[in-house]
Amino acid sequence: MKPIRLRDFIEDIDGWIYAVSAYDNHERAGCLLRYVPDDNGERTSVNGKRYKKLEFDDAFDLIRDNKPDYLNSLHRVPLNEIRKVMKPEESIDHIVQRNKRVQKLISIFKIPLGSYGCTGSLLCGLENKESDIDMVVYGETWYEARTQLRNAIKNRLINPLSGDMWEKVYKKRVPEISFETFVLHEKRKYNRGEIDGTYFDLLFTRSYEQLGNISPTEKGEVLGKETIEAKVIDSSLSFDSPAVYLIDHEEYDRVMSFTHTYSGQALYGETLEASGVCEQHRNEKWLIVGTTRQAKGEYIVSKTLLDS
Is 4 within the bounds of a domain? Predict the structure, then answer.
């Protein structure tokens, strides 16, 4: 059996469906509860079963009240209580067959089978007409896919985000930076666009070969809030979740973001400014951004980009 990894979905023994949100899943899968069976639910599966989609706080409340042993910084589901694992790369053919927009999006990429898929509601068969497309690409192939997406936008095969869509994304994410600063950073990432009026993301996930050196998702010793500037010396995992920026700084070793808003925010060689919570992890200090759902008071920006 292949390891459970970030952006897979799982179903537990009660039919509750979770988004896998971590890589360290050896004994318990680190997830967030997303859907529960409900006869009055607004989502209907491909086999006709109805589900209710849960928001972040509601999901934690339901776990706390019904499965407290799962409760952690994520929802930790024991492997022996997982009934089904859904993997984007294994389900893409079925998704393409039933969704013309995904079919059209996939057609612009020339990347190997098995290196990509769709996660989110599409993976669970619980999408509706308003559902975004969350396309996952694994490992180094993600960078090639991003280049191909950039070229497709340049050649008008795919639309970039419209002004209205940028406004929608900004309001959804509620970042601690201005709209102009947000869009300035986002436009150079080339990891999203629109297809037939539908928003899509190009999401990075590590290949199976990259799963050997995983950063822990558990909290270290909290030392307080801090704002720092530092030069980025490694941004190779800046689009991962959490996003990792290794930095040249006299006190801190890395900046990590647990919110997608600040992935890919600063490039190798650039100077970033980051505000977050300092944690001690063994002999290293990490600055963590995204310690709450909306990351109030926390951000990452590229000073190099802003100054230019």
Answer: no
